[in-house]
């Protein structure tokens, strides 16, 4: 059989803004090379020309479905550089909003997975339920997806009156819906057939390739920056880090489902125990941190997000490096797709939850 | 679960590395952050030591910073550990200083496969050659890019 | 064409505007709101806009969501050229209109009207789904009057 090179290009029902160059021999993929860079906007260079506070809307845009997750580590890094510490109420609000974003992002992932596998009900239901969580976010932060809510020193606004009851009602609604997703999707024989045993990433390969997030936890390594770094008030909450040992697409899907349940648990605990107090400390709006560098990590929905900031004492950072989870998962494409069927390509691709904007920055 | 407290464990790691590699500068800059500064020729042995003896099994990211006033480019590897539970909280940074005109350093892909795309990105953005890297094509920039590496300080954004 | 003016033109336009099919081309972050506009709350399908996940040769609406980089621009033009006539373009988001938040980047086009002819501009970062639906209705008005 001769080899054929396919370009699953930027315009394709089964890809995002990203190209996969696939060599097929008959029905088997022999080589899959990712070709990112279609949305490379040069954010790291732009951040060198903007003050620390002005970069926040810029840094939210890579992962728009989980925008708090991408900006959280930046805000923590700037706080460490400048020597600020957010008040406790602000830390609780940040954890609350970050977990709501995680739920939103995983529901988006579930919806698009439904489309990729041809289950259009699974596209409509999570997208509709995601609107419930977006409504909560709108109540607090004022926008649907891009909030610019986290700032160094706290958050921009306080929680409105009546938010706790609305949020608790929303979590009860989501839990009921998760049972229904289980029935129509996760226990659906076609879904199980298409994802079980497909795209297996073994435990030691996952460690060697340095993957992050649910891709890592679906291979049995229960590493999570919320437990390892224990930033803000995460060490006061009781939650589990789900990890499944099989390493196939089904495990990765189950990890994300469990993470939604754990996020609901954290949201409930945060709403019960949030203290009174200020939500932001006063600091000069033009931050001039002293010379030094800082490396901060948080756990966004897709994995560990990290920022490395080098400051030389000026108003703008000398170097801002963004380490996004999708970029670190790029190696998994080459590794997992080799030897699989061509029809399994969308299954494996979306189970890694690769978000091209985040990888390209 | 931890036999030693985190602060003591960091100091132990720093002491062991200093014994093995006397020419390296070691600094514990914050909680859970150790920084090493190494000359580029001892990078492969240091990397093998950190992977096999200390247990840092993957590269989280590679950063390149351009210092035109000091005429050097600093490349930093940020390492993490998954398998050894007590050092999961640690991020170890290994920095090398390279001359600006001819920035070359041995590639660590043979020791840490996770460094492949990070080194490739640093190559195209800061202009550092990684000797022995399997694929040095442009990754994120357009295929017809003929300008300077964008993250060098000589490359200025238009209108700024 | 069979009838440039007259009653047949009206029927052809009526058929076109109530069955605008967008190409599945995700350009940048506004794509999340295009996904949201098809969900049960906003439901753009009642206006005839169906997410026909087939070939682009059967689509007539190109929604350019968000930033277009220099690497993506030739591919965008190629996709536009392959669509059959009559075809329409909606520039969605501040990045597609003028480059938006990334105006000074080295890899971003300052607006897509240097590459494609645009029919409707939708400001916002990202525009709300209601704004995108209003844009589709404006486009339908434009087709009706053409």
| CATH secondary-structure class of chain A | Mainly Alpha
Helix content of chain C: 25-40%
State the CATH architecture of chain C: 3-Layer(aba) Sandwich
The biggest beta sheet of chain C reads: 3 strands, parallel
What class do helices, strands and sheet pairing of chain A give?
A: alpha+beta
H and E order of chain C: HHEHEHEH
Count of alpha/pi helices of chain A: 15
The gross shape of chain A turns out to be globular
Question: How big a fraction of the residues of chain C is strand?
Answer: 5-15%
Largest sheet of chain A: 3 strands, antiparallel
What features would you describe in this structure?
The complex is a heterotrimer of chains A (361), B (160) and C (146). Chain A is an alpha+beta fold and 361 residues long. Chain A has one domain (4-360): Cytochrome-c3 Hydrogenase, chain B (Orthogonal Bundle). Chain A is 48% helix and 13% strand. Chain A is built from 15 helices and eight strands. In chain A, the strands form three sheets. Chain A has a three-stranded antiparallel beta sheet. In chain A, a hairpin with a 2-residue loop joins strand 6 (292-300) and strand 7 (303-311). Chain B is of the alpha/beta class and 160 residues long. Chain B has one domain (6-131): 2-Layer Sandwich (Beta Polymerase, domain 2), CATH 3.30.460.80. Chain B has helices at residues 6-20, 43-54, 116-126, and strands at 25-30, 33-37, 58-67, 72-80, 91-99, 104-106, 129-131. Chain B is elongated, with a radius of gyration of 17 Å. The model of chain B has no long low-confidence stretch (mean pLDDT 87). With 146 residues, chain C is α/β, with parallel strands linked by helices. Chain C has a single domain, classed as Rossmann fold (3-Layer(aba) Sandwich). Helices cover 34% and strands 9% of the residues of chain C. Chain C has five helices and three strands. Chain C has a three-stranded parallel beta sheet with strand order 1-2-3. In chain C, helix 1 packs antiparallel against helix 5 (129-145) and helix 2 packs across helix 5. Chains in contact: A-B, A-C, B-C. Chain A binds chain B through residues 36-37, 40, 42, 44-46, 49, 80, 206-210, 216, 221, 223, 228-230, 293-295, 297, 304, 306, 308, 310, 318-319, 321, 323, 327-328, 330-331, 360-361, and chain B through 29-30, 32-33, 57-61, 63, 65, 76, 78, 80, 82-83, 88-89, 91, 93, 112-114, 116-118, 121, 125, 138-142, 150-151, 155, 157, 160.
């Amino acid at each position: 059989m001769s080899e054929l090179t396919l370009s699953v290009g930027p315009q394709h029902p089964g890809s995002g803004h990203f190209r996969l160059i696939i060599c097929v021999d008959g029905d088997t993929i022999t080589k899959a090379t990712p070709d990112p860079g279609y949305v490379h906007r040069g954010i790291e260079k732009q951040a060198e020309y903007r003050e620390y506070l002005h970069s926040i809307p810029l840094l939210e845009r890579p992962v728009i479905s989980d925008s708090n997750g991408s900006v959280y580590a930046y805000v923590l890094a700037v706080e460490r550089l400048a020597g600020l510490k957010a008040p406790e109420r602000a830390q609780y609000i940040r954890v609350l909003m970050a977990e709501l974003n995680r739920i939103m992002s995983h529901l988006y992932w579930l919806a698009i997975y439904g489309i990729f596998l041809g289950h259009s009900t699974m596209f409509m239901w999570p997208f509709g339920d995601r609107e419930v969580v977006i409504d909560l976010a709108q109540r607090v932060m004022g926008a649907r997806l891009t909030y610019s809510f986290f700032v160094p020193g706290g958050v921009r606004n306080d929680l409105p009156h009546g938010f706790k009851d609305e949020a608790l009602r929303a979590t009860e609604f989501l839990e009921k819906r998760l049972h229904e997703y289980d029935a129509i999707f996760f226990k659906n024989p076609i879904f199980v057939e298409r994802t079980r045993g497909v795209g297996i990433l073994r435990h030691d390969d996952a460690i060697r390739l340095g993957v992050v997030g649910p891709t890592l936890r679906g291979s049995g390594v229960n590493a999570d920056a919320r437990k390892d770094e224990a930033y803000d008030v995460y060490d006061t909450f009781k939650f589990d880090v789900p990890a499944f040992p099989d390493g196939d697409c089904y495990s990765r899907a189950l990890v994300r489902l469990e993470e939604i349940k754990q996020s609901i648990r954290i949201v409930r605990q945060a709403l019960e125990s949030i203290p009174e107090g200020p939500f932001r400390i006063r600091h000069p709006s033009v931050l001039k941190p002293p010379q030094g560098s800082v490396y901060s990590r948080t756990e966004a929905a897709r994995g560990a997000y990290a920022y490395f900031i080098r400051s030389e004492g000026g108003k703008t950072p000398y170097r801002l490096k963004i380490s996004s989870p999708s970029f670190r998962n790029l190696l998994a494409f080459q590794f997992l797709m080799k030897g699989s069927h061509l029809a399994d390509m969308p299954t494996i691709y979306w189970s890694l939850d690769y978000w091209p904007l985040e990888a390209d920055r | 679960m931890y036999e030693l407290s985190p602060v003591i464990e960091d100091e132990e790691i720093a002491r062991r590395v200093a014994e093995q590699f006397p020419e390296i500068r070691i600094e514990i800059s914050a909680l859970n952050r150790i920084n090493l500064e190494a000359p580029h020729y001892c990078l492969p042995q240091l990397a093998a030591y950190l992977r096999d003896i200390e247990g840092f099994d993957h590269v989280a990211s590679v950063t390149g910073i351009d210092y035109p006033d000091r005429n050097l480019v600093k490349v930093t590897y940020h390492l993490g550990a998954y398998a050894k539970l007590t050092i999961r909280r640690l991020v170890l940074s290994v920095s090398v200083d390279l001359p600006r005109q001819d920035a070359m350093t041995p590639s660590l892909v043979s020791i840490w496969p996770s460094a492949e795309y990070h080194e490739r990105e640093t190559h195209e953005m800061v202009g550092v050659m990684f000797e022995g890297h399997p694929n040095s094509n442009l990754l994120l920039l357009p295929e017809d890019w003929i300008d300077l590496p964008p993250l060098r300080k000589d490359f200025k954004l238009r209108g700024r | 064409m069979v009838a440039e003016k007259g009653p047949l033109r009206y029927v052809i336009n009526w058929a076109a505007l109530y069955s605008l099919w967008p190409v599945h081309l995700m350009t940048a972050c506004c794509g999340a709101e295009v996904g949201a506009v098809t969900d049960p709350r906003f439901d753009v399908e009642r206006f005839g806009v169906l997410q026909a996940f087939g070939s682009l040769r059967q689509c007539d609406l190109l929604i350019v969501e968000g930033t277009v980089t220099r690497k993506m621009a030739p591919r965008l033009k190629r996709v536009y050229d392959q669509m059959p006539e009559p075809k329409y373009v909606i520039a969605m988001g501040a990045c597609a209109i003028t480059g938006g938040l990334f105006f000074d980047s080295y890899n971003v086009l300052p607006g897509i009207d240097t590459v494609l002819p645009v029919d409707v501009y939708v400001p916002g970062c990202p525009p709300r789904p209601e704004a995108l639906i209003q844009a589709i209705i404006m486009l339908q008005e434009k087709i009706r009057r053409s």
